[in-house]
Every structure is written in C-alpha cells, then in structure tokens.
Amino acid sequence: MACINKWFEPGMPLVRHYLFDPPGMLDSQYVRVFVWEHSSEVDRDVLVQQVSNKENKSRHVRAGFAIDPGQPKWCCVLLGYDSEDEARATTFTAKMETHLVKPEFVD
User: Fold this and answer.
1) pLDDT in the model for residue 4
2) Is residue 35 within a helix (H) or strand (E), and if so which, with residue range?
3) How far is CA 13 from CA 38, 60, 70, 77, in A?
4) CATH topology classification for 26-101
5) What percent of the chain has pLDDT over 90?
6) Fewer CB within 10 Å, N or C, the chain?
7) 12, 17, 68 from 4: Cα distances, Å
8) pLDDT band at residue 53 under the 50/70/90 scheme
9) Of the candidates 74, 87, 106, which has an alpha carbon nearest to the alpha carbon of residue 30?
C-alpha cells in the first residue's frame, strides 16, 4: 500500500483503458509504447505523427485515447517491429518517455 501511495496520484486510475484505431492485436515481436497527456483530443493520425518520423520502420501502428471517466486527454501510441534492432534503430521526434517491450503470447 505504501508503494501505491508513493507512486500514484489520488483520484487518478491505476490502469487506463484505451480505445485504439484500428482495433485489434499487434502481432509484432517488439512494441514501442508511448503514453502521455495531450493538451486536447486530436485525430489519431496526429498522435502518430508526434512520435514517429520518416525513418520509422514499424510494421504495425495503433493509436488511441483513454476511455476512463475524466481521462479523455491521455493518449497511447503503439509501434510494432519485426526485430529488436529495427525498434532500437528508429529515432523519434518526440521528447517523451518510451518503452520497448517484447510481448509474450500465451495460448
């Protein structure tokens, strides 16, 4: 409980749920994840443009806004890559935190 009190803001959700467009799962080996609070709700293409550039070699792209009450400005962009090298080689225009993850698919 002390950890929750230290790292999370009162009244803010511990988990956010996003509505992605296009819907569906990413089947990429590596996924770069961007999450940030945007100043206003904009088109999903604008979100993708904010984190990627012409050198982006991602195979799949998903972008969406949080659907939790009171959280409409939180957005998330997922960029899927075939290899870790491709994901690490891509530079980004955004100066924000990003995470590279390797999803594990479980049957």
Assistant:
1) 66
2) strand 30-37
3) 17, 28, 10, 19
4) Alpha-Beta Plaits (3.30.70)
5) 9
6) C
7) 11, 19, 19
8) low
9) 87
Q: Extract the tokens encoding 38.
A: 């945007």
| Strands 74-81 and 30-37, sheet pairing | antiparallel
The length of the chain is 107
Choose among 80, 64, 60, 61: nearest CA to 16: 64
Q: Where are the domains of the chain?
A: 26-101
**pLDDT at residue 106 greater than cutoff 70:** yes
Residues contacting residue 34 through CB under 8 Å, at least 6 positions apart: 51, 76, 77, 78, 79, 94, 96, 97, 98
Q: What is the pLDDT of residue 31?
A: 92
Residue that the structure tokens 């984190």 belong to: 51
Res. 84 pLDDT band, cuts 50 70 90: very high
